[in-house]
Amino acid sequence: MMLAAESMTHTLAGQIAGLAKPGDLIALWGDLGSGKTSFARGFINALTGETEVPSPTFSLVQTYDAPDFVVWHFDLYRIDQPRDVLELGFDDALDDDVVLVEWPDRLGDLLPDDRLDLRFRMVAAGGRFVRLEGHGSWAERLNDLAS
Ligand SMILES: Nc1ncnc2c1ncn2[C@@H]1O[C@H](COP(=O)(O)OP(=O)(O)OP(=O)(O)O)[C@@H](O)[C@H]1O
Ligand SMILES: [Mg+2]
User: Domain limits at 80?
Assistant: First the structure.
């Protein structure tokens, strides 16, 4: 799907936020600057009203209180090995909350099979392209998005 401007990324993020449930993991794939944090910002803003959503490049994780769960925003670019996420509370987050992950490749075997994959790409014209792939319960939930 084409996201010709950042506002379109935010609109999509708001729609997906409306489908999110405790236990979800949303994997944000894509190169540097492809729009992963923009998506996270739109998602968190839709659920919490928060407008200050810094990139957790150095903190590695930030949490936000939504009405029914906590949103955990991870940026794993700088972690050395997958198990380092356990010290950041990754397991607890997956049990009870909603998890957004930039650089999900860093999770290795800890990446759950049941997840929503968003693959961001820059396009020559400006904007971004994103491919959505729902696994597990997300496959059906994405149909709600289309309709
Ligand atoms: N759909 C879009 N159209 C145009 N520009 C966009 C779009 N989405 C994001 N951008 C712009 O792209 C830039 C990089 O976005 P962002 O920080 O979200 O990327 P990122 O994938 O998180 O990068 P990093 O890998 O460094 O964390 C920002 O300036 C942002 O405003
Ligand atoms: Mg980012």
Answer: 2-146
